[in-house]
Fold:
Amino acid sequence: MIITRVKAHNYKTYLDLDLDLTVEAERPIILIGGMNGGGKTTLFEAIYGALYGLNIHNEREFQELLNAGAIATEKPEIVLDLSFKGLVAGTEQRYNLKRTYRVMSRKPVENVRLNLNGNVVSYGTQTPASERHRYEQMLNKIIKANLPQELSKYFLFDAMQSSELLKEGVFSQIIRDNIQNVMGFNKYLMLKHAAEKLHQKKAAERIQAQRDREEYEKLCSEKEQKIKSKASLEAALDQSSRRLQEMQESYDAAKEGARNNANARQRISEIDAKIAEANSSAERYSTEAKDLVENIEGSVFLPKLAS
Structure:
């Protein structure tokens, strides 16, 4: 990847930067110098932002990145424009990548325009999600083929940062980390870590499943015991009900027998009274008959017999 031109409009210290970085074959190096605060680091940040985008989440962050001279403009916007070239399958490709940021309805929006050898692709925040995702994948593939984001800090830094890189072990560590990122080694480590976490999760799930199964079997056993206990109680209740029914029938029979016995005693009393009355009447009739006979004998039969 060879950067040929950098433009920054309303970005931090740059109100309107247009820097031509084309070089000749015999003079391939460009040196950029300046006082502290002159914008050297901001230049690399502008290149980085043009390649990988600015992370602007709200209006306040947009205002912090906006150049002070652009605040009074009618439609303040930040524009990062980067021209570069690179080899793809042995063929030189020329790119122009332009990112524009502005605030609409108090929300930051982004518009991206990519010119690849004259073929222009544009998309932005308001582009439908599926279409924007497809364009972003294409752009990320192009940028990754030229300068992967993992290696960007290895190339995009100023002399003030080089002192940190030159410390013992730091530079080699950065190179190793970046190469691991680019080659995908970290992906395997991440996959291994994810696999270990997944294994631990599944082991925990198996343990929990075993506990749940044991708990389930325990509940099933308790349920079976309760069903047996319920059947036993129902049988006892049924037997008690039959006994109660028999007792009720016996009580009713006894009650009926007592009532019949009382009626019989009453009838016996009535009969006894009638018998006593009959005996009394018989004695009275016998006495009256005897008196009648004696009277007849004395007053009728004997006189006639004497006559």
Q: What stands out?
A: The beta strands are 2-11, 14-20, 78-88, 91-104, 107-116, 119-124. DSSP finds seven helices and six strands in the chain. Helices lie at 40-52, 59-65, 129-146, 149-155, 159-165, 170-183, 185-306. The longest strand covers residues 91-104.
